Amino acid sequence: MKFTKKIIALLFALFFFSTISFSQKVGSNIKVAYIYRFIQNLEWENESQISEFKIAFLGKDKKYIAALDALASSKQIRGKSIEIVKYNDISEVTNTNFQLIIVESQFNYGFKSIFDNIESKNILLVSEEFEDRKLVMINFIYDDKGKFSFEINKLTIDKQKLKILPKLLFLGGTEIDVRELYKEKEAELSKNQEVVKIQKEELLAQKAALDEQKKELEIRKKNIK
Hints:
The protein is α/β, with parallel strands linked by helices. The longest helix has 47 residues, at 178-224.
């Protein structure tokens, strides 16, 4: 009986730890699987001249890196091999000789500088939980319940001269409504302009009050004399 209990306990422990390991691997594997599908459903300018697809990864997640390396060693994109280049510091990402750059969420503070550096250079940028949706191209997101998904900003992808194939929009992601974003921006600008207007009026009122005080002082000086 004791032997049987030990066997059951051992099997439970093995199952428990294998489950943790599996769940940890799934996160990175799913992201990389999506990335592979993204590449399959986009076309780069002058793609016939590309000898291999170069992917830059800015991050420190070892499982993510391992999943990308596994992709590069086992898959091709339209007959072209895949090369993975790893970076763990934003200052290192200066080369623009890539088809794709992946930015882990811990480096979101430097996302805009990367975006500005590659603008109009035919490079896809994949981000994670980046909040400024006007700048994202493809952005991994999590909803309130922790469900994993992604969103697509067609406008920024088009500006990169990347052609979106129809199937990309059927991978389960959400297309960002750019019009709504610009409406929000216009409303924000309008509000800011109103605040500036009020501040200018207040400054003018203060200046008028100061001018009035100066006049009164001049009159008092004359009276004293």
